[in-house]
Amino acid sequence: MSQTLQLIECPRDAMQGIHDFIPTEKKVAYINTLLKCGFHTLDCGSFVSPKAIPQMQDTATVLDRLDMSATKLSVIVANVRGAQDACLHPRVDLLGFPFSVSETFQQRNTNASRKEALDRVKETKELCTKHGKGLIVYLSMAFGNPYGDEWSAATVAEWAARLAEAGADVLMPSDTIGSSDPENIRAVFSALQGLTGIVTIGAHLHTTPDTWQPKLQAAWDSGVRRFDSAIKGFGGCPMAKDELTGNMPTERVLEFLSGSEVESGIDARRFSESMLLAGATFPL
């Protein structure tokens, strides 16, 4: 697992499921406040079809207007065309690809089979290498799925090994529908121990207000030190159509680290400003 603490804020994941279009200037203002907080990475946009994710149609424009910062910027891509566009943007540091352990969800999310998606990962890696970008692969449905597709920690580990071989720099097992619990979180990350030192492994957990702490504790105890989260738990996965779960709240992650006497590296004052602006950015 990653031994250096890496906190990733996910405004893209928070925004993408909101029906009403958030004006570009609001997105820019919000993300610029986050760039001052000290996060390792911001997951800040998508190079996908506007028909699939209308909210992210202005990603390139948003990136053009962002302040310079030591924080890395990542974007989501789902096919080679999107990867090409993302690689040509100078502000993009990392490309994120959604690969599903569930065959049903892979088709639903990217209109491709897992085999086709694996080929896309390989092609995306070639582009990343050519343009000096990093590659994150999100292992969607890593903790179970609602479709009856085969799932086990061993299955997750099998696909993770294939994705590492395909060139992923970071693997993020993702709790797409909030189906994880401490037991299967420990099982999944235990199964991935063999990839430690080959790729960075993190956690993208979705949660309800009363389940965040045991999930976070289980991942931490499993050696995970890279965490995706979003202020106030905004967001989730619009393709999964589950309104009961949201992202792991960033403020809860910081609360957990403080309680564990771990230095987060996040500027508390700047983060408070971002929290306030989040309320004005996201329509409730």
Outline:
With 284 residues, the protein is α/β, with parallel strands linked by helices. The chain has eleven helices and eleven strands.
The N- and C-terminal alpha carbons lie at a distance of: 36 Å
Secondary-structure-based class equals alpha/beta
Tally of structural domains: 1
Helical run tally:
11
CATH superfamily: Aldolase class I
Question: How many whole angstroms does the radius of gyration measure?
Answer: 17 Å
CATH architecture: Alpha-Beta Barrel
For the record, the CATH class is Alpha Beta
The amount of helix comes to 40-55%
Listing every helix as H and every strand as E from the N terminus to the C terminus, the arrangement reads EHHEHEHEHHEHEHEEEHEEHH
What integer is the average pLDDT?
93
Shape: globular
Strand line-up across the major sheet: 7-6-5-4-3-2-1-10-8
Count all strands and give the number: 11
Percent of residues in β-strands: 15-25%
Provide the CATH topology: TIM Barrel
- Contiguous low-pLDDT stretches (5 residues minimum) are 237-242
* Main β-sheet description: 9 strands, parallel
Q: Can you offer a commentary on this structure?
A:
By secondary structure, the chain is of the alpha/beta class. It has a single domain, classed as Aldolase class I (TIM Barrel, Alpha-Beta Barrel). It has 11 helices and 11 strands. α7 crosses α8. 47% of the residues are buried. About 2% of the residues have low confidence.
Q: Keywords, please?
A:
TIM Barrel; nine-stranded parallel beta sheet; alpha/beta; 11 strands; single chain; 40% helix; 284 residues; two-stranded antiparallel sheet
